[in-house]
Design brief:
This protein folds into 2 domains: 99 residues, Rhodanese-like domain (Oxidized Rhodanese, domain 1, 3-Layer(aba) Sandwich); 154 residues, no CATH class. Helix content is 45%, strand content 12%. The chain has 12 helices and 10 strands. The chain has a 5-stranded parallel beta sheet with strand order 1-6-5-2-4.
């Protein structure tokens, strides 16, 4: 659990993403600044900084909340002060959006997210019995686009019908925007579309997913392992797609953590000198 603090640095916040330490992220720039900006912090929800009493009930009191405004000044400070007065562990993102940009950290392409998933919580639909790409994509959605997103799994021939009936965004199926393009899989497509493909760890993760999902283990040495684990999880979960998603998220959280924090670590059995 994050230690109590009034603020959090951009780099420290980035390190928590896709970990159990990740705070709930709230965007509190002035509405006109928010609407004019093409960028969004990963997973952030916009709320009115002056009306915390109207929306604070949406958030989990047992988890920290990080609030981001333009530069970490009055808007986020006001909202943090109100939330802390109500008993929340709330903190200011140091430097706000400007600080995040200065640190060279990734943003989400807001226009594309709002175009494809205009409501929050967002709703997405794909084929049932996920294995690799259809676990990687929901992981990306929940960790970087919308933490409260709902994922629906249906029979393959009903994905488009369900999408049309309930306004869900279809993915990883033929003839939709969020799908395979050439040798690249749906996870690649989402990274590119939402402006995240230049983040080094996500780019490396994409190569692992691509290799595992398209039977090309030569792309990344970890691809064969992901393929084996994914098929094994599928056997354990049976027909419970959401149980499989929960277990699969642990795999992708672990892969992402390895890529960011431990990719250079090596283990060798110690050999005693003769």
């Amino acid at each position: 659990m994050l230690s109590p603090s009034y603020s959090i640095s951009p780099n420290d916040l980035w390190k928590t993403i896709a970990t159990r330490e990740a705070p709930q992220l709230v965007e509190v720039r002035r509405r006109d600044a928010y609407e004019q900006s093409p960028l969004l912090l990963p997973g952030a929800l916009w709320r009115d900084a002056g009306k915390t009493h109207e929306w604070s009930g949406e958030f989990d009191r047992t988890r920290a909340i990080a609030l981001a405004c333009k530069a970490g000044h009055e808007m986020s400070q006001m909202a943090v002060a109100q939330l802390r007065a109500d008993g929340f562990d709330a903190r200011v993102l140091e430097g706000g959006y400007e600080g995040w940009a200065k640190a060279g950290l990734p943003f989400v392409a807001k226009a594309e997210l709002n175009r494809l998933a205009p409501r929050r919580p967002s709703l997405w639909v794909t084929r049932r019995r996920p294995k690799i790409d259809r676990i990687a994509c929901p992981w990306l959605i929940r960790r970087f686009l919308d933490a409260q997103a709902r994922i629906l799994f249906v029979d393959p021939d009903q994905v488009l019908n369900v999408a049309r009936e309930c306004g869900a965004t279809p993915f990883d199926i033929k003839d939709v925007e969020l799908s395979h393009v050439g040798e690249r899989c749906s996870f690649d497509t989402m990274l590119k579309l939402f402006g995240l493909e230049s983040e080094p760890s996500l780019a490396r993760l994409a190569s692992i997913v691509r290799g595992a999902d398209t039977a090309r283990p030569d792309i990344a040495p970890e691809a064969a392992g992901l393929h084996a684990i994914s098929l094994g999880l599928s056997q354990l979960a049976g027909d419970d797609d959401h149980a499989l998603l929960e277990r699969g998220f642990m795999v992708y959280d672990a892969l992402f953590a390895w890529l960011r924090f431990a990719a250079e670590e090596r283990h060798n059995w110690p050999v005693k000198a003769a």
